[in-house]
């Protein structure tokens, strides 16, 4: 059965690709989960319209991510931690701590978008990157200070 993909699907292809799959796979998996349409002339036209809407939506998301990144670049946050001997902190600074500090500043971000390259285990100033969109990354200056 020939189907048209509605979503990017790693095993088969990208949006709009016409692929040939087994009938049962299409009827029982791809079509009920709205990953694909059956390849008919009407569905091809409907997919073209859907593609236009998806492109508009992605452009809006990219624009809003760039605006948020510009705002985040101006922000610096401080995270108070308990400190032991030789200025070493107990544990490490987590992405959840950073997300909570950003929430206090008015930025509600998911902790999974925050990327810490190395564990933060000492006092100091760190640059933490936040992946807002596949092509947009913001950097926030983070101060780890004594509590």
TrEMBL record:
Pfam hit, one: Ribosomal_L9_N
GO cellular component: ribonucleoprotein complex; ribosome
Described function: Binds to the 23S rRNA.
Domain of life assignment: Bacteria
Coiled coil: 37-75
Keyword Transport on entry: no
Any single biological process term in GO: translation
Annotated signal sequence range: none
Keyword NAD: no
Gene Ontology molecular functions: rRNA binding; structural constituent of ribosome
Protein name in the entry: Large ribosomal subunit protein bL9
Residue stretches making up the Ribosomal protein L9 domain: 13-40
InterPro entries in UniProt: Ribosomal_bL9 (IPR000244), Ribosomal_bL9/RNase_H1_N (IPR009027), Ribosomal_bL9_bac/chp (IPR020594), Ribosomal_bL9_C (IPR020069), Ribosomal_bL9_C_sf (IPR036791), Ribosomal_bL9_N (IPR020070), Ribosomal_bL9_N_sf (IPR036935)
Organism whose genome encodes this protein: Melioribacter roseus (strain DSM 23840 / JCM 17771 / VKM B-2668 / P3M-2)
Family: Belongs to the bacterial ribosomal protein bL9 family.
Taxonomic lineage from the root: Bacteria, Pseudomonadati, Ignavibacteriota, Ignavibacteria, Ignavibacteriales
PANTHER family (UniProt xref): 50S RIBOSOMAL PROTEIN L9
Keywords for this protein: Coiled coil, Ribonucleoprotein, Ribosomal protein, RNA-binding, rRNA-binding
């Amino acid at each position: 059965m020939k189907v048209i993909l509605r979503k990017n699907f790693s095993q088969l292809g990208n949006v709009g690709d016409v692929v040939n799959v087994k009938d049962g796979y299409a009827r029982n998996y791809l079509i009920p989960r709205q990953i694909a349409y059956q390849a008919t002339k009407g569905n091809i036209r409907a997919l073209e319209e859907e593609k236009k809407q998806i492109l508009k939506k992605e452009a809006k998301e990219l624009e809003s991510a760039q605006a948020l990144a510009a705002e985040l670049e101006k922000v610096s946050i401080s995270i108070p931690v308990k400190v032991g001997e030789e200025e070493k902190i107990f544990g490490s600074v987590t992405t959840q701590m950073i997300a909570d500090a950003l929430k206090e500043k008015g930025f509600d971000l998911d902790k999974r978008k925050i990327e810490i390259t190395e564990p933060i285990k000492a006092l100091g100033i760190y640059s933490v990157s936040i992946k807002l969109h596949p092509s947009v990354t913001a950097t926030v200056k983070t101060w780890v200070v004594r509590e």
